[in-house]
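Team,

Forwarding the record for the chain on the shared tracking sheet. I've put the sequence and predicted structure together so nobody has to dig through attachments.
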Amino acid sequence: LAQQLHESSLRWAPIHSRSRALLARNKRLHGRHAGAPAHVIGNGSSAAHLDFTHFAGSVTFATNSFYLHP
């Protein structure tokens, strides 16, 4: 059901041509880490106090401007 809702929302969402090209390239990554535990890290002032070495070697997704953190 979640997949159907996702596909349905994408079908009706206006997508800029550059975004459409990026999505097409990223399609090859679909399912790449299926079944593996993953961590999603957000960005905020609390991130400055975290030890990110804990996530080394694991599937990790970062959001916002995380790349600005050393």
